[in-house]
Amino acid sequence: MGVRTRICILMAAVAVVGQSAVSAEPERIVSVVYGLTSLGSQDDAQYAFSRARSVARTLDDGGVSSRTYSDKDLSKALSPPYKLAHLVYLESPSAAQLKAIGKFVTSGGKVIVHYSTSEAFAKLMGMTPPEPTESGP
């Protein structure tokens, strides 16, 4: 993970949860969730975990205490005291997972999405997928 990415992860956490995220014994208010059930191929499970671990280390090294969950425990990761969730490689979240994420966001929680191309996820985040373009000479 590059230095700029690490800085962005830390700045986002402090911006969302404030300086309370950085203290000697902070309450763990940032969750990091990696895809497991939402993956298209279970061959990607180790990669998803590795990316999530990298995000968690970046946060923890920067003094922002975090806790890591798989998407099997999404409800725990999106429950109080968590205010910010890094969603890492939730490739194709289920309808139930999207509903839980939507509830978290409407309750004031914030999410940062890493490595997902799900159109349903994009719509939930208020984004519209780009229109396909013709390729050719």
Description of the molecule:
This protein has 137 residues and is an alpha/beta fold. Helices cover 39% and strands 15% of the residues. It is built from 5 helices and 4 strands. It has helices at 3-17, 45-61, 74-77, 95-106, 119-124; strands spanning 30-34, 66-70, 84-88, 110-114. It has a 4-stranded parallel beta sheet with strand order 2-1-3-4, sandwiched between helices. Strand 1 (30-34), helix 2 (45-61) and strand 2 form a beta-alpha-beta unit. It is globular, with a radius of gyration of 15 Å.
What's the main sheet like? 4 strands, parallel
Alpha-beta content class? alpha/beta
Looking at how many chains there are and whether they match, the oligomeric state comes to single chain
Q: Provide the β-strand percentage band.
A: 5-15%
Element-by-element helix/strand order: HEHEHEHEH
Shape, per Cα inertia axes: globular
Number of continuous helical runs: 5
Radius of gyration: 15 Å
Q: How many β-strand stretches?
A: 4
Mean pLDDT: 83
**Fraction in helix:** 25-40%
